[in-house]
C-alpha cells in the first residue's frame, strides 16, 4: 500500500508533511466498483456513464396554464368591453387521450400539463375569461366533478393571445438524443427528477462508501447516560459519523470501545464485513493506554487474526493532529485511518485526510474542501509553531474577504469548533501572523 512518492525516511522520529500523508492515503484508495441501482437508492452516488435522453421532454405540446385552448384569430381584439364569445366543445385534462378538434369560434377547457388539442394555437388563462359563467373575470374554473356541464356552453374571452401563448413546446426542455447527465455527476434530487422524467428507472453508479467509525477510551460515556467520576461524553464518534455522511458516505457509528487491545481487534474484525473504510479516533499517541496503536501495530507485524495489509503510525508536521495512523486491514485490504482523540484534532484530521479518501472511493475528481485566500482579521499577532502547518478555527466573511479566529488553539475546544465555518492555514515556515496578513482558508460548509 506504500506510496512511492512518500518520504524514504519513515522512522519513528520522521515528521511527515500534511501533503505527504494525504498523498499516501489517496495512493491506497481506489474508487468502488460500479453497480446498477434504482433511482432513490442512487441518491448521493456518482454516475459512471453518460445518460442520454431517449424521448423529447416534454413529449408533446402542452398547456402551462389552466384556461381555454383557442385559435388566435378568434380572440384577436378581445377586451373586457368587447369580449370574444366562443363555444366550449369540451374538456382537455392532463393525461387525456382522444382530443377534440378546436374549430373556428370554438374553445376547449384545458388544464395545466394537458396536451394542446388539434386546431388550437394558444391558451388563454382562465383569469382572462368569465370562466363560462357569463359574469366578470373568473378567478378559477368550476370543478369538472361538481359541474360537468361547465365543459360546455360559452366562454367570454377578455384579452387577445398571440400564437403559442402559454404553450410549452414539445422538446423545449430537452430533445431526444441530448446529453441528460454526464458521467461523474453526483445524483441529488434535481438529477433524480430528470432521470425519472426521461423514463430511467435505474442507473449505473459508484455506490456511496460505507464508513465505520470507532471511538476508543474507557473514559467515554454515551450521551444520555449519567457521567461517573473521570468520565466524559463520547463526542468524536458522533462528529465523525456526521462528517462522513456530509462527505457522501453511509456511516456506521460503533459505540466507544474500552482501552483493551483484544477487544478493539475483535470489534474491528466484526466491522470489516460492512466497511469500505474504517476510521478510529483516540489511542494513537505514545501513552501507556493508547490501545489503537497497540492493537493495530500487532496487525502490522502479522501477530493478529485480522490478517492483511498493515498500519503505519507516524507523526505529522501539523497542529492539531500530529499523531496519525494509516494502512489497510483484513482480507480485502480495507483502508483504515487512525485519528487522534482530542476532538479538534480528530475533526481537523477527518477534513484533511478522511473526507478526501471518501470522495476518492466515490470516484470524484475533486476530493478536498474548497479553499480561498482571505485577510486575517484579529486584534493581535498570532503565533504558530515552527515547522508545523497550523490549522486554526475561523469565521469567514465572503463579502469582506476576511477571516477571524474562533476560540483558542487548544485541541479540546469543541465549543469553538461548533462556531467555526473554516480552517485558517498557517504555513510551516511562518511563526507569527500579523493582523491583515493574507492566508489560505479552507471552507467547511
Kindly state the percentage of residues in helix: 10-25%
| Class from secondary-structure proportions | alpha/beta
Strand-residue proportion: 25-35%
What is the gyration radius calculated from CA atoms?
32 Å
List unreliable stretches of 5+ residues: 300-305
The total of helices stands at: 8
Multimerization status: single chain
Describe this entry's structure for a reader.
With 445 residues, the protein is α/β, with parallel strands linked by helices. It is built from eight helices and 29 strands. The longest helix has 19 residues, at 343-361. Mean pLDDT is 89; it is low at 300-305.
Structure in a nutshell:
With 445 residues, the chain is an alpha/beta fold. Helices cover 18% and strands 29% of the residues.
Summary keywords:
445 residues, alpha/beta, five-stranded mixed β-sheet, 29% strand
Outline the fold blueprint.
Elements (H helix, E strand, L loop, with lengths): L14 E2 L1 H11 L6 E4 L7 E2 L3 E2 L9 E2 L3 E4 L1 H4 L8 E9 L13 E5 L11 E4 L28 E4 L9 E2 L10 E3 L7 H9 L4 E5 L3 E7 L3 E2 L10 E2 L2 H12 L2 E8 L3 H11 L5 E5 L9 H10 L8 E8 L1 E2 L3 E7 L4 E6 L3 H19 L9 E6 L5 E2 L5 E9 L4 E4 L8 H5 L3 E5 L5 E2 L4 E6 L2
